[in-house]
# Entry
Amino acid sequence: MDTETKLKKYEQWLMTLKILTAVCLILSIVLIYFATKGKVDPILLILALLATLMFFMAYREKSKAPRPGSPEYEAIERAHEAKIAAQKERIYRKQHPFDVARELVENNKASSKSSEKKKDA
# Structure
């Protein structure tokens, strides 16, 4: 995925979080009105306020993160790719122990031959 597409998705995600925050805030205000009249259970009001807070915190955290295309974002992405590659290697080693053992034996033979050549020289 190119940087422009990532940036567009990032902006869409921020807009979605803004909209969700606004909707929850409006719902909270309406529920406060009805809660004061005694027509709504206060637990709904609490849930709406918590949802508003959750979406606002998610928006704030997401907006502070590095934008796609920035050097910080690229560094984070490279580190994440390296982490995934290492995880795939660990999974491969767990699923194919005999292949890994065969590779180790072959590498050990190759290194022992090269060390013998160094001793002879």
Q: What stands out?
A: The longest helix spans residues 3-37.
